[in-house]
Specification:
This protein is an alpha+beta fold and 193 residues long. It has helices at 2-20, 145-153, 175-184; strands at residues 43-50, 56-63, 69-76, 82-88, 96-103, 109-116, 122-129. Among the domains are: 38-129, Beta Barrel (Thrombin, subunit H), CATH 2.40.10; 145-187, no CATH class. The chain contains 3 helices and 7 strands. Strands 1-2-3-4 form a 4-stranded antiparallel β-sheet, with no helix packed on it. A 3-stranded antiparallel β-sheet has the order 5-6-7, with no helix packed on it. A hairpin with a 5-residue loop joins strand 2 (56-63) and strand 3. The longest helix has 19 residues, at 2-20. It is extended and about 85 Å long. 22% of the residues are buried. It binds calcium ion (4 copies). One calcium ion binds at residues 64, 67-70, 89-90, 93-94, 96.
Length: 193
């Protein structure tokens, strides 16, 4: 009887060791991105979201220069390169912490959190941000013939003349960029409004 119990104890121990042992699967660190705010002080990320293109958004509270902590949202591309930073400081230059963030299918994003109001204690402060649409060179909200004409006006130029025209990022504005823009057109046939 004792031997039988011992055998079950041994089997149990083997199972436990097997279940908690590291598996052969590996995770690899692809990139690490750090953000330090303007005060070179406390920066705390509290939420993260990923859009359909794999870009990463991180938000939280970051000490500003005389503004207390501020909502601070950072966008990274799929390789961890910082694309932009946007900050929000509430009405009394005091504590503003963004606790949550969401991205919709159109690329708009939303942050919310606690923000010190003017005599109102902490308030919800929810912010919607829009992002410039790729290919919308004239900023009218559509990608169409008007944008294509702008791009073609820079044909064979160095990308420094119109950085947003260089859609393939090769440093020169060429017919390949025009082809990419046509694929982004938001109007049937890429006609102008
Ligand atoms: Ca810091
Ligand atoms: Ca603030
Ligand atoms: Ca446009
Ligand atoms: Ca190009």
């Amino acid at each position: 009887m004792l031997m039988k119990s011992l055998r079950w104890v041994c089997i149990g121990m083997v199972l436990v060791v097997f279940l908690i042992s590291p598996t052969s699967a590996q995770v690899n660190e692809q990139w690490v991105a750090r953000y330090d705010g303007p005060a070179n002080d406390s920066d705390s990320a509290l939420a993260l979201a990923v859009d359909s293109a794999g870009n990463v958004y991180v938000t939280g509270g970051s000490d500003g220069d005389g503004t207390g902590s501020d909502y601070t949202t950072v966008k990274y591309d799929t390789d961890g390169n910082e694309l932009w930073v946007t900050r929000y400081n509430g009405p009394v230059n005091h504590i503003d912490w963004a606790w949550a963030l969401a991205v919709d299918s159109a690329g708009n994003f939303y942050v919310t959190g606690e923000s010190q109001g003017d005599g109102t204690g902490y308030d919800y402060a929810t912010i919607k941000y829009t992002q410039p649409q790729k290919g919308d060179l004239d900023g009218d909200g559509d990608v169409d013939r008007g944008d294509l004409n702008i791009l073609l006006g820079h044909r064979n130029d160095d990308a420094s003349h119109c950085p947003e025209c260089d859609l393939d990022g090769d440093g020169t504005i060429t017919a390949l960029d025009a082809r990419k823009l046509v694929l982004l057109c938001t109007r049937p046939g890429c006609v102008v409004d």
